[in-house]
Amino acid sequence: MDEYTPCKKKDPTAREAIGNIMRLVRAQNRNKYNARKTTVCGYTFDSRREAEIYLDLLSRKQAGEVLRIGLQPQYTLLEGFRDNTGKKQRPITYTADFFVAYADGRNEVIKVKGVRTRDYQLRKKLFLYAMKDTEIIFREVK
């Protein structure tokens, strides 16, 4: 009678086992959309592209074209409220990546986006509706 073996593979060596564990640890730290956090000038950005845009804005600021750069400005799209059962509903907010005030007087909100999710598209549309009567320009960068 043959001996019962639940696995056809042999037990992994110590080196293979450590390699398997390290692969799992690396997979846990990976971003869903493969974006890598990048630190520039003491600020940590969600992606390398966002950090590149920030460096470009800094160079424009040194040249005098940009007056002010705001990081992660947050806008309230719908105030929080209590529904008809008394349950508190949280506000809907939109967080852009940069707010830029230019020397010529115009203001711009910049969002660096790789993957355009359904949630992002809805919030962007609500943001554009909320800002339709203002002088703020919205720019999406890929």
Poorly predicted segments: none
- In what order do the strands lie side by side in the largest sheet? 3-8-9-10
Between the first and last Cα atoms, what is the distance in angstroms? 64 Å
Number of extended strands: 10
Q: What is the count of helical runs?
A: 3
Query: Mean of the pLDDT scores?
Result: 85
Instruction: Write down the secondary-structure element order.
Output: HEEHEEEEEEEHE
Question: Whole-number radius of gyration?
Answer: 24 Å
Give the amount of beta strand, in percent.
25-35%
Structural class of the secondary elements?
alpha+beta
The major beta sheet can be summarized as:
4 strands, mixed
Global morphology = flat
The helix content, as a percent range, equals: 25-40%
What attributes characterize this protein structure?
alpha+beta, flat, single chain, 3 helices, 142 residues, four-stranded mixed sheet, 10 strands
Task: Write structural notes for this entry.
- The protein has helices at residues 14-29, 48-63, 118-130; strands at residues 38-40, 43-45, 66-71, 74-78, 81-82, 88-89, 92-95, 98-102, 107-112, 136-141.
- It has 142 residues and is an alpha+beta fold.
- The chain has a four-stranded mixed sheet, covered by helices on one side. Strands 1-2 form a two-stranded antiparallel sheet. A two-stranded antiparallel sheet has the order 4-7.
- The N and C termini lie far apart (64 Å).
- The model has no long low-confidence stretch (mean pLDDT 85).
